[in-house]
Write a structure and sequence with these properties.
By secondary structure, the protein is an alpha+beta fold. Helix content is 51%, strand content 19%.
Length: 437
């Protein structure tokens, strides 16, 4: 995981990212604190890119993918920041040189295998639970657990819409093209479990849907976040566009637009956290997100049971009359609960969020960068002094992108000493010099 943030006002956009990256394997996890997550999308234009989540795309480091795009992009520019984002996504979807059919096949296999293992673990847990409770389990009970678990996953994917950028026939095409792969994965993962024909069809549908849908609340291991921020040629104020990007199967990129935010004459400041954002939310809203969720859950239960508690104390009413009153009071309770939530939300906005936004709107570039760095460090410090895994840490890279100055590094780590590698900086704009000669 990681902690990243973008802060924008009318003058510039500040990007900050930590350096932690976690690599997992069969023997455990290892965290490194030297990853680069912010890059120039162009050497010449005021636009930058930031990545989080999976450090690789289809097995290739994001840094390599970005720099290949940058070398092909060269001095071209777009009128708006939005076009930069669309062009980069288009590059990922059509770059068959980087993602040939063989790599797409591996990606399909790995993704399906990982998800089916997840289903199998759920099945095994249910089987184990039944054995502990009853000291035995029958074959019919195992079949029932299989049908229930696989059915729940199937229903979840069926209820999710296909991504707008992917044609409806993509799922059926995947089922035909990778039918042998799906069948092989089912045999390898579920082995001797009694997978009947109906369940086999559901698993095939799930496998194909993995590459065409994004169910709510599901965080696949292969997903990366991509944030593109800065200015297009005709943009007066900065903006950012972010995507969830997963991979390419059957020459179709699975991605989803996440956020598009821009500074306007009426909207003078924006603060957008990415990945692990709980400390930024706490700072901005004055309440920790999980505490707020728990409070709202308790209030919801309180408004639901309160009429029953009160009426239980009234002796003059029979049970039927009490039930009728409860049914009348339920919508009133729901309405008051909504009013309570809206009141708390308004309070947070007025007392916490708006004052910060008002100041951010007038911050000079150096203060904008300092704020971005501080908010990332806040998340890192919280992880350091708690029992949670330190998945945020290391040096914080900070960049400022403005219309006139382009991308300016405020903090940037190098894996080499700049004093010993002057040729790196001399070669950075080499093609520009070659053109002049």
């Amino acid at each position: 995981m990681t902690a990243e943030i973008a802060i924008m006002n009318k003058e510039a956009v500040a990007l900050a990212a930590d350096s932690a990256t976690t690599v997992g394997g069969e023997k455990g996890e290892k965290t490194f604190t030297s990853a680069n997550k912010i890059f120039a999308l162009s050497k010449y234009e005021p636009v930058s890119i930031m990545v989080y989540g999976n450090a690789n795309f289809m097995g290739i480091p994001w840094e390599t993918v970005i720099k290949i795009y940058r070398s092909e992009f060269k001095k071209s520019n777009f009128e708006t920041l939005k076009e930069y984002g669309d062009d980069f996504i288009s590059f990922l979807g059509k770059e068959n040189r980087l993602f040939p059919e063989s790599e797409q096949h591996k990606y399909f296999f790995s993704n399906v295998y990982s998800y089916f293992v997840l289903i199998k673990v759920e099945i095994e847990n249910e089987v184990e639970k039944t054995i502990i409770e009853r000291e035995k389990i029958t074959e019919s009970e195992i079949k029932a657990i299989l049908a229930k678990t696989i059915g729940e996953h199937y229903n979840r994917w069926q209820q999710t819409e296909v991504i707008s950028s992917i044609p409806q026939k993509h799922i059926s095409d995947l089922k035909v093209k990778y039918s042998a792969v799906i069948e092989m994965v089912v045999k390898e993962v579920f082995q001797k479990l009694p997978i009947e024909e109906t369940l086999s069809k559901q698993l095939t549908e799930i496998a194909s849907s993995l590459f065409a849908k994004f169910p709510e609340g599901l965080n696949p291991p292969f997903v990366s976040g991509v944030v593109i921020a800065g200015f297009g040629a005709s943009d007066i104020f900065p903006s950012l566009k972010s995507f969830y990007v997963e991979g390419v199967a059957n020459n179709r990129l699975k991605f989803k637009e996440h956020k598009y935010m821009q500074i306007t004459l009426d909207n003078g400041a924006v603060i957008v956290p990415f990945a692990q954002s709980e400390m930024v939310t706490t700072f901005m809203e004055g309440v920790e997100p999980s505490y707020q969720e728990e409070m709202e859950r308790f209030l919801s239960q309180l408004f639901e049971i309160y009429p029953q508690v009160i009426l239980d104390k009234v002796d003059k009413l029979d049970s039927e009359e009490k039930n009728q009153l409860i049914e009348k009071l339920k919508p009133i309770g729901a309405e008051k609960l909504m009013q309570c939530k809206e009141s708390l939300k308004s309070h947070r906005r007025k007392k916490y969020i708006d004052p910060v936004i008002d100041v951010v709107a007038v911050l000079p570039k150096d203060e904008l960068a300092a704020m971005a760095e501080s908010l990332v460090n806040l998340t890192s410090f919280k992880r350091k002094v708690s029992m949670e895994k330190e998945t945020v840490g290391g040096p914080v890279d900070v960049a400022i992108i403005s219309k006139g100055d382009g991308l300016i590094w405020i903090r940037r780590k190098h894996y080499f000493s700049p004093e010993l590698n002057r040729q790196f900086f001399a070669n950075y704009y080499r093609e520009d010099k070659d053109e002049k000669t």
